[in-house]
Amino acid sequence: MSDSNTRPPAGLRPFLPSDTPALAAILSAAIFELTSEDYDPDQQEGWAAVVADEETLGKRLAGALTLVAERDGELVGFIALADNKHIDLLYVHPDVAGEGVAALLCDAIERLALARGATSLTSDASDTALGFFQKRGYVARQRNSVLRGAVWLGDTTVEKKLTGEGVGG
């Protein structure tokens, strides 16, 4: 891909069921290419197994407020907000990691949640994503061990209070 300085910004749109295969591929690529410093191969395999069934993933995404990021006609990331209070899924393609796509998605979902009456948001942040959320004002509330297949993964429940000024980066 070209230099991030010359790339057009990503645009956001609502999730469509036909997006599911591309989003499953983004989720899998992000797990295997971005998390190796924090999770071993067995943990990555167990985690990625959540996308093995695209039908289940599609239902999960359709049951949440899900936004997708698109650049040059290709999907590059997505975020799913469950019950207007929990960021259930947030993934970007490894090719655009660090280019602001995740921040764009978070900004939008925080604003939408606030407009819909939410006073705070939570997420169960992977060790890889924890720093991203903390830079956005999310505070660690609880350390978790999550069983994925036959392996345990660690993550951290984080929370951010939403106010008009506190939304976004």
Secondary-structure map:
Layout: E1 11-14, H1 20-34, H2 41-48, H3 54-62, E2 65-71, E3 74-82, E4 86-92, H4 101-115, E5 120-126, H5 130-135, E6 139-148, E7 151-161
Parallel strand pairs: 4-5
Antiparallel strand pairs: 1-2, 2-3, 3-4, 5-7, 6-7
Explain the overall architecture.
The longest helix has 15 residues, at 20-34. The two termini are 26 Å apart. This protein has helices at residues 20-34, 41-48, 54-62, 101-115, 130-135; strands at residues 11-14, 65-71, 74-82, 86-92, 120-126, 139-148, 151-161. The protein is globular and about 40 Å long. A 7-stranded mixed sheet has the order 1-2-3-4-5-7-6. The chain has 5 helices and 7 strands. By secondary structure, the protein is α+β, with helices and mostly antiparallel strands. The model has no long low-confidence stretch (mean pLDDT 92). The protein has a domain at 11-118: Gcn5-related N-acetyltransferase (GNAT) (Aminopeptidase). Strand 6 and strand 7 (151-161) form a beta hairpin.
- Taking all Cα atoms into account, the compactness measure Rg is 15 Å
Proper CATH architecture of the domain at 11-118: 3-Layer(aba) Sandwich
Structural class: alpha+beta
Q: For this structure, what is the CATH class of the domain at 11-118?
A: Alpha Beta
Strand order of the largest sheet: 1-2-3-4-5-7-6
Number of strands: 7
Helical content band: 25-40%
- Would you list the SSEs in sequence order as H and E? EHHHEEEHEHEE
Percent of sequence in beta strands: 25-35%
End-to-end gap: 26 Å
Unreliable stretches = none
Shape: globular
Count of helical stretches: 5
Averaged pLDDT: 92
Q: What kind of sheet is the major sheet?
A: 7 strands, mixed
